Structure formats: structure tokens, C-alpha cells
Amino acid sequence: MGGAAFATGQDALHTPRMAPAVYASVRARCHAVLFTLFTAVATPIEGPGKADFGDIDIVVTLPFPISDVTAEDDPENTFLLQEATARLGAVRTSIAKGKATMAIPWPADLLWLAPTPTYANGDISLSGCFRSLPHIQVDVAVAPSLSLFYWALFKHSHGDFWSIASTSMLRPLGLTVDERALWLRVPEIEHKDRKRSKVFLTDEPAEVLRFLGLRILADFNGHRDGEGRDCNGGGCVSLWEQPFSTAQALFDYIISSCFFYLPDLSSDSQTMGNNTHPSLLKSNDRRRIQRRSLFRQWVMEYVPALYVSGHHLPTKFNTGAVPSREAVRDAAFAFFPDSQAQFELTCIRYHRENHLLAIRKAVKAAVPETLPRAHHVAVCSAMRLHLGLAVSGGESTPKTEMEAEEAAAAWTVDSVTNYIQEKWLGILEKVAPASYAKYVADQRRV
Questions:
Q1: pTM for the model
Q2: Where do the CATH 3.30.460.10 domains begin and end in the chain?
Q3: What is the C-alpha separation between 205 and 143, in angstroms, rounded?
Q4: For residues 25 and 416, what is the distance between their CA atoms, to the nearest angstrom?
Q5: Calpha distance 252→374 (Å, rounded)
Q6: Contacts of 421 by beta carbon, 8 Å cutoff, 6+ apart
Q7: CA angle 224, 328, 299 (to 5 degrees)
């Protein structure tokens, strides 16, 4: 199976997997074309030992000026990507959110290397499911900045590297690598609001690797990171400039991290999120096992073999008990000095916001439910104004949510409930005399 974006439905295109020679040639041709539009063009490092390729992924950034179109006119780079697909000769395209997926014709000079589609009845003619010559799927993503360009290359290098590292090591320990940076999650917020639980650590690839205890340079002669030289005595060789030679080499690299650990399967390993065991994988990881051979090899072969052999590199986090999120959090605070203050500020903001919501809810609940709806709404509004919980922009009321949070901090749910139940009528008379007069008049008519 090759690129699948255009391989099904009406007028499906034959997009078979490419041999390495075809992949390298077409990738180079695409890069050359895209360099006429963008200053920076690159493809993430491929996974180890790939015998063929389903599509070509390319990241670009810093476009050259085109016509009169500015970045403000084209915030999602739609015009740029349309121009890119045209120059690449795409016959089918899908463009959205700064990304283009396209099908380009298989080069005529490489057709002899194209697999021939075989159908269920054994017919290999082009009169069957696919009615055209083969095509190649190319995915182009525009990075908003040069730093995000380099991060995208880092994040998507070595195939399933980050999927494996995240599933087996980072995620259980409260770390997250996404399309922008490395983050530390706040445990007490994570299960309620995953997006809000993230605390920024770094968007520098080298810093990520150093924090995780992963070598940047190849180690040929037992040298420590930064001291190894290549076999010919030349410059240092980065592990992030070319693919690993084998899946085994990539897996060995992952477990060299100071945070890698093998949970005790006899204990409640799910407590620490033992995502190395297939039965405890999340649904998207289980799907990845079916679709990604490298990920499947890690989960089904490599990790079980580690348990059998008992051989993995001991670190300060896995010499004894399973590493705790607190230990990893403290390591992050030590390595990234600004992160502790941001972590604490995130906690404070989250708790203040939730306390404000709880107090507002308690105020509403404390107002008698027997009041007619119109009066109930007016009383609730008056109570919030009186307590400084409403953001109205008036001279005597809070102008920001932060000021409302400060006002709410003076109350507990119980204290504000008792206060409103006892004082609501007097507060209404003081804060909203017109609403009070209407309420009294309606009560007299009852």
C-alpha cells in the first residue's frame, strides 16, 4: 500500500509504494522545484531499514514574494500551496490549514520501477480499478517560522521514534512532545483539561535530547556525548542527520534515555501508565500497531525481549522503583529553570478560575428556586455584582476575570451560600432597587 489519500473512491489513482531509488530521485526533484518558492525545503529523516516508501513528506518555510499576495492576504498559505502543486505538476490536490496533499505523475524515466497493480481476478491491465499510469503522493507542509521548520523536521524524523518514545516513556511520566515543543503536564489538571495542563519546557531539539539523556552524536569508541568522532577521523556525526541503520539500533537508542524504564508487570503497572504492554495501550496506539511496522516491532518483539533478557541500561530513574512523575518534574525544574515558576503559575491560575466558577455556581444555587424566572435571573445578577463576581466594566464592578477571581478568593462555597441565603433580599434592594421594587410589587399581588 502506498499513499492512500487518492487511492480509493471514484477515479482512484494508483499510488504504489516506491523503491528507495525512486523515492530518493522524486524527493530530490520535488525539493528542487520547491526551492523556487521557499528559502528552506527539507524532508524529515526516514525510519530505519525501509524497503519502500508510501509517500514523500516535505516541510517548507520562508516563501519568496509571489505576485502581490502578502502573508496577511494568505494566512493559511493556500495561494502558495496552490502554486506549489501547480509547479510540481499535481493532478489531484487537497489543501487545508497550511498543508497540501497531492498526487503527481510517476516520472516517465522511472516507470520501469513502478509496481504493476494486480486485481482480484489477476488482471494486470489498466482497464481495471486504476485507469491511469501510477502516481506518487507528496505531502507539503508550510512551517510558520524557521524555528518551527526545524522543530517539524525533528518531530517527524526517524519514522515512529516519537510515537514509541511518547507511548513507552514520556506520556506515563507527564511529558509531551507535540508539533510545537516539549511540555510538562500538571497532573491535577491533565484529566480535566489536557490542553491547559501543558507547561512549556523547550522548543530547541538539542535541549530536548540533552534533557532526555539521548546522545546527539554517534558514539564510535565509547566516548561521551560530544566527544565521539567518525571512523575516518573527520567531524562529529550527528544521529539526527541520517537514518539509523536498523530498527534494533533505533530501539537501543531509545532505551538509552535516562527516563526509560521497564515497569514491573507483577505490580499495578497501570498506575504509572505502563504503555509498553499491548493490553494497556490506548486505542490510537493499538491502531498504530496494526498500521506501523516499526511501532509493532517495538511493542510486540523488542520490549518483550527486554523483559526476557533483563538487559537494559540502568539509570538514576530505573535502578530501583518505577520512576515517579514527581521525580521527572523535579528534573525538568532543574534543567529548565523557568519551568517551575510557570508550572506553579499554571496551577494557581487554574485553581483560581475553577474557584471563581464554583463560587458563581454556589451563588446561583443559593438564590431561592421558588422565585419566578424573571426575578431569579435579576437576583442572581445582583448577587454577582454585589460580590464582585461579574465582569461588566462598570466603575464599581470588576473589569477583568482576574479581579473577579480575587473577589471570589474571599469566599468558600459554604460561606457564600449561607450569606446569600440570609441576605439576598437586602442585597437586591441595595444593588438593584428597580428589580427589588418590582419583586415587592409582585409579592403584594400574590
A1: 0.83
A2: 20-153
A3: 16
A4: 71
A5: 68
A6: 366
A7: 75
What CATH architecture does domain 20-153 belong to? Answer: 2-Layer Sandwich (3.30)
Q: Which tens digits make up the pLDDT trace of 138-186?
A: 999 999 999 999 999 999 999 999 999 998 889 999 999 999 999 999 9
pLDDT digit string, tens, across residues 393-404: 556 666 688 999
Interatomic CA distance for residues 214 and 84, integer angstroms: 37
Phi and psi (nearest 5°) for 420? -65, -40
Give yes or no for a contact between 278 and 295, defined as CB atoms under 8 angstroms apart.
no
**Torsion over CA: 322, 326, 328, 334 (sign):** negative
Rounded Cα distance, 156 and 151, in Å:
9
